[in-house]
User: Which sequence fits this backbone?
């Protein structure tokens, strides 16, 4: 229960939604801990649904807004909630529309991601986000191999090697894998290549990409998903490979394993969709093709 | 290459999820209209490799996964975690045990 709880935190503070005070995200040390506890508590307490109709409208600068009855949705930071395109607006509106009697913020992943991108609660710039995301490359899930048991060794080799080969070819880099606790030695050129590649993403898609990376604990799997080499299901399976192996051996516990898996899938899917819907390059390419 | 199901199945899957969310009047929702619209627009004759179409297919597959996983997660959450934590007495009785009682109280009751 603890792991999902911590994984949740960054989201929860944002999921506190339109009306919560901004104070929650400030402060350091002990107060932060208390606030974290508070944040988590209030995220599990579900707000009553206070609206009937959810609509979208196009406001200034062509940005889309969400309307709950007649009120405009705002971010937890108090900004007007706006998204760059119709598809994302509809997906977010659907999340709000899907709530029944109470608002379950922990099921509204796209809303959460938009809030994070709009408010930028940690006040980071693009460069800091890229560095934070690439930090995961040094400890990338699929680069760490076990030496026993033999079944798992084979499984990791058979499942992870193809995707490692794919990314090395796709980006023309060297990554490699290792069974030592220090992990593989990743050359500086590799990091530089990825740094440049991530720099081509805009702030919104980078927010989504970093989110996927922190969920899957793997830069490689995340890029595989964003480059459409993997589906969400495949990426999540590869990320949880050892867990799946243990499940096969010891049995599946629905309230822990399945619960985690569906949560991870939902978050990863939301992240991937968010990146695809907010990266400008995808739209430009599509227009060129239509001409 | 990512293995994906056919567009028709994905489309149906998404509509089924929207229906699960909204009930019988799901056809009036924005999401329904948008999804139908997108799938109609991206239909092509012949099975030529088309990048835009592949992208659309991947995105729709991802969206289906999002809706589906959120629903399953929600169901499991309600089933196992929806009621918060159990009291020691309840936990004990789950495995057929009872907490010991002490005649006259344990001394810290008021």
Assistant:
């Amino acid at each position: 229960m603890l792991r999902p709880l911590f994984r949740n935190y960054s989201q929860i503070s944002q999921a506190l939604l339109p009306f919560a005070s901004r104070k929650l995200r400030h402060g350091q040390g002990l107060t932060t801990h208390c606030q974290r506890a508070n944040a988590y508590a209030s995220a599990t307490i579900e707000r009553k649904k206070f609206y009937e109709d959810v609509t979208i409208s196009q406001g200034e600068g062509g940005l889309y807004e969400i309307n709950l009855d007649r009120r405009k949705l705002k971010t937890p930071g108090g900004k007007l909630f706006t998204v760059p395109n119709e598809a994302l607006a509809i997906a977010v509106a659907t999340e709000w529309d899907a709530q029944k009697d109470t608002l379950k913020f922990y099921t509204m992943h796209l809303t959460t991601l938009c809030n994070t991108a709009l408010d930028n609660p940690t006040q980071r710039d693009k460069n800091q986000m890229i560095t934070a995301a690439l930090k995961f490359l040094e400890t990338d899930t699929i680069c760490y191999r076990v030496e026993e048991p033999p079944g798992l060794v084979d499984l990791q080799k058979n499942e992870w090697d193809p995707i490692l080969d794919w990314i090395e070819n796709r980006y023309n880099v060297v990554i490699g894998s290792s069974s030592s606790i220090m992990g593989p030695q990743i050359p500086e050129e590799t990091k530089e290549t990825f740094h440049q590649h991530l720099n081509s993403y805009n702030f919104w898609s980078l927010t989504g990409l970093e989110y996927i990376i922190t969920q899957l604990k793997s830069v490689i799997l995340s890029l595989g998903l964003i480059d459409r080499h993997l589906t969400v299901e495949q990426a999540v399976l590869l990320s949880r490979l050892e867990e799946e192996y243990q499940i096969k051996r010891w049995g599946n516990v629905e309230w822990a394993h399945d619960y985690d898996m569906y949560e991870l899938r939902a978050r990863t899917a939301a992240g991937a969709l968010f990146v695809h819907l907010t990266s400008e390059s995808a739209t430009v390419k599509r227009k060129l093709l239509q001409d | 290459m990512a293995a994906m199901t056919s567009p028709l199945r994905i489309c149906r899957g998404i509509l089924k999820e929207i229906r699960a969310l909204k009930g019988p009047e799901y056809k009036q929702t924005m999401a329904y209209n948008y999804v139908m619209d997108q799938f109609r627009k991206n239909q092509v004759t012949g099975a030529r490799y088309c990048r835009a179409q592949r992208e659309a297919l991947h995105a729709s597959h991802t969206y289906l996964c999002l809706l589906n996983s959120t629903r399953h997660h929600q169901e499991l959450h309600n089933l196992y975690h929806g009621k918060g934590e159990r009291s020691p007495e309840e936990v004990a009785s789950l495995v057929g045990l009872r907490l010991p009682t002490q005649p006259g109280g344990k001394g810290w009751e008021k």
In short: Confidence is low (pLDDT under 50) at residues 1-42, 281-291 of chain A. Chain A touches chain B at residues 1, 44, 55-56, 86-87, 90-91, 93-94, 97-98, 104, 107, 109-110, 228-234, 254-255, 258-259, 262-263, 265-266, 269-270, 272-273, 276-277, 282, 285-286, 289-290 (CB under 8 Å). Chain A has 13 helices and six strands. The two ends of chain A are 52 Å apart (CA to CA).
